[in-house]
Amino acid sequence: MKSIFLGITFVFISSCSQQPKSIHQTDLESNLGSPNVNLSGVQLGLDILLNEKIDLIKNKNIALVTNHSGVDSYGIPNYENLMKIKDVHLKIIFSPEHGLFGEAAAGEKVNYNGQIKTLPEVVSLYGKNRKPTFEQMENLDFIIYDIQDVGARFYTYITTLGLIMETASESGVKVLVLDRPNPIKGKFTEGPILDLKYQTFVGYYPIPIRYGLTVGELANMIQGEKWIEGQPSLEIIKMKGWKRDLWFNETNLKWIKPSPNIPDLTTAIIYPGMCLLEGTNISEGRGTNKPFKRFGAPWINKEILSAKLNNLNLPGVVFKPISFIPTSIKGMSVNPKFKNQVCYGSEIIVTDREKYLSVITGMEIINLIKKTYPSNFKLKQGINRLWGNTEFIDQISTENKDGLFRLPLEKFNRISKRYWLYD
Question: What is the value of pTM for the model shown?
Answer without folding.
Answer: 0.90
